[in-house]
Amino acid sequence: MAPPHLIPTPTSMTAVPSSPFRLGAGAAISGDPDAVAALQAHLDALPDAPSAGPITLTVEAGGAAGSYRLEVDAASVTVAGADPAGLFAGIQTLSQLVQSGPDGWSIPAVRIDDEPRFAYRGVMLDVARHFHDVDTVKAYIDRASSLKFNVLHLHLSDDQGWRLEILSRPDLTARAAASSVGGDAGGFYTQDDYREIVAYAAAHHMIVVPEIDVPGHTHAVSLAYPELSEQPVLSEHVHEVVALFGGDLPENGTGYDGMAVGFSSLKIHEEATYDFLRDVFREVAGLTPGPYLHFGGDEALGTGPADLAAFVARASALVAETGKIPVAWHEAGAADRLAAGTIGQYWGFVSPTDGMDDKARRFVAGGGRIILSPADAIYLDMKFSASSPLGLTWANGPTSLRRAYEWGPAAVIDGIGDAEILGVEAPLWTETIRDLAAIDAMAFPRIAAAAEAAWSAPFASTPERTWESFRTRVAGLEPLWTRLGIRFTPVQAGDPS
């Protein structure tokens, strides 16, 4: 059995007949310079900041992408990654293994052979509903990468604000970036800010997936380019959300700080709309070295089915023209002319409703794959308990830690197994999330459940992949999270079951 504090649980782990490795002064960490620096940063966070060694960190080609081997005995520690990403993952495991005892800090004698189940292991941070500055995004990268996530999806535009400087369309940030939900201050990233985020993510072996959400979720665009926007569709749902959460009804040309969705749309039949998207997508693609660009396509309730199909066909083609792989939320799967290879992101429930699974399958039929983000399992903005002051409950909420854990990616959509799944992503929408403390409280510990779904063997396939094992291991990580300054929700408080 894995130690009680190791998450995600590794592929295989065996005890070595040896005393633990003692961390002490005067010894050295050697090997890959970037890996040495990463491990030293972890050890520096320990009380008394011990030196450590002999610890050897190397890249040894030959294993599966992202895999590593970790060996510990009383005399030495070795971490060998099949590639730099695998070595980085091994360092995260090693950092979790460090234990405090009467004789100081030590690492148990073990051998671990480990590799990821899915290539894409993501977290999403919505910076549109509430803006989160560069330092906050970097802190979230620190937290996510420590659990072996390798993708940061940034939701950069929505009804409440546009968050990325576009040089060819300067009015987007000059006129459409100032507000957030509830009348809070807005903000945006300059292109240099965005490059800084991308570089910081790369140093943590994460890529950035930027999302420009169209044709819905575009009320902010109406502040900068009203000629591209339809009038808001004020449905019964919009009136209900305003009645429940307050705020004004949306009106073109006026900033929107409410929480309703589905009322906005770009003009589908205007060529100027596609000229706008071409400019935006080209700049975003040029700033982003990763392979993906997300164009949304969700909750376009103000756009008819035929118009939405026509739009997502053109939008996906415009993304593909930039050299990026298009990604869209599963609703875009209703279109029959998506660009070949477009990736679908499924945000429906663990038990699909309303034909959401059929739309997701369309991406696979078109040569793409699926990212699983079931809202009633790993939407980190759902309340974790009825008494939580933060979060929402629309996704069959509240979502307990146990429910966040007890699901399997390959069991959600019939006919969509591991071969068709690109990966798993845990979104954090920020209608109620204003700062890093709130991010921590909502993400931790449920983010660990998503990490294990993305990295480890299928749920219930091993003794470690059970709720009982996971809950014990999460509780065992709390001292480490405390040392790292993560303001998590304690396991018992966040999951009464």
From TrEMBL:
<dbReference type="Pfam" id="PF00728">
    <property type="entry name" value="Glyco_hydro_20"/>
</dbReference>
<feature type="domain" description="Beta-hexosaminidase bacterial type N-terminal">
    <location>
        <begin position="4"/>
        <end position="114"/>
    </location>
</feature>
<feature type="domain" description="Glycoside hydrolase family 20 catalytic">
    <location>
        <begin position="309"/>
        <end position="457"/>
    </location>
</feature>
<feature type="domain" description="Glycoside hydrolase family 20 catalytic">
    <location>
        <begin position="118"/>
        <end position="300"/>
    </location>
</feature>
<keyword id="KW-0326">Glycosidase</keyword>
<keyword id="KW-0378">Hydrolase</keyword>
<comment type="similarity">
    <text>Belongs to the glycosyl hydrolase 20 family.</text>
</comment>
<dbReference type="InterPro" id="IPR015883">
    <property type="entry name" value="Glyco_hydro_20_cat"/>
</dbReference>
<dbReference type="InterPro" id="IPR025705">
    <property type="entry name" value="Beta_hexosaminidase_sua/sub"/>
</dbReference>
<dbReference type="Pfam" id="PF02838">
    <property type="entry name" value="Glyco_hydro_20b"/>
</dbReference>
<dbReference type="InterPro" id="IPR029018">
    <property type="entry name" value="Hex-like_dom2"/>
</dbReference>
<dbReference type="InterPro" id="IPR015882">
    <property type="entry name" value="HEX_bac_N"/>
</dbReference>
<dbReference type="InterPro" id="IPR017853">
    <property type="entry name" value="GH"/>
</dbReference>
<protein>
    <recommendedName>
        <fullName>beta-N-acetylhexosaminidase</fullName>
        <ecNumber>3.2.1.52</ecNumber>
    </recommendedName>
</protein>
